[in-house]
Amino acid sequence: MIEITGLTKRYGDFTAVDNVSLSIPDGQFTVLLGPSGSGKTTVLRMLNRMVTPTSGEVRINGKDTAAEKPEQLRRSMGYVIQNTGLFPNMTVRRNVATVPRLLGWDRARTRARVDEMLSIVGLDPDTYAEKLPSQLSGGEAQRVGVARALAADPPILLMDEPFGAVDPITRDRLQLEMKRLQRQLKKTVVFVTHDIDEATLLSDKIALLRGGVLQQYAAPEELWKQPANEFVRDFFGESFGLRIMVRHGLSEITLEPVGEGIDGLPRVGIEATLKEALAELIDKRAERIVVVDGGREVGTVSFTTLMCALGQEDRS
Length: 316
Fold this sequence. Notes:
This protein has helices at residues 40-47, 70-75, 92-96, 98-102, 107-120, 125-128, 138-150, 168-185, 196-202, 220-225, 230-236, 240-244, 274-284, 303-311, and strands at 2-11, 14-24, 29-33, 55-60, 63-64, 77-81, 156-160, 188-193, 205-210, 213-218, 267-269, 288-293, 296-302.
């Protein structure tokens, strides 16, 4: 559990973060979101004391982080930044092994952990372990950065716009990989972004900041249905409901019966998101589509079905 209470950071007369308080349960993926200058990166860096708060406190599992040595605190947290921060003169293996070496792990344990982490992020150790960062693509380097952050198995992972410097296609793939990793590893993640789609896809909860002030801290569905103020409503915009469709799958909703007259209708897998199903309806100009599970027809969905499912109050 991360408990942030009255966190404030001032630089002279300028207040970068103003009295921010929120609680982050173990295993939750929290996104710090907001426009440029909103204070989201400053909040993140106060969690591992790369920035010292002017006032307020951060407690992790009840322990005040101000009482710990900064280097020890940072070794207990993974940290991923936009441009990976890989050491250019070190191989991928040595980069990923950075924190385990600092913690005094033996060579065999470190090597096994590096291989495990590279495999988890989708990089074959035999292919990538001895490469230098200059030999990697942007997406590969970012995966190595994530592997390095996870190498010592920290309970908390801090990520500062980690996918912001890669191309859109690679970014989409990395986001899906991050979502898969979170389901598998169940880390407590604090993730900074200014991208609404990224925040909506990845988050359990979003902390929306403006001018250093926390505007609302809630799940995307609550931010959409119950915005705390006009800024929250305007920031997410009128299309926020459509963005939220990517968070929910056809397997979660009540499908219409298969019925008659389905020959020639488009088909989509039960694993598809509501957004993917809507795209298929629009692309095929169909009134409904057939949902299949392992080749078996399990129901159909129409535009009305999708809109009703999205609007259900118990989904927030």
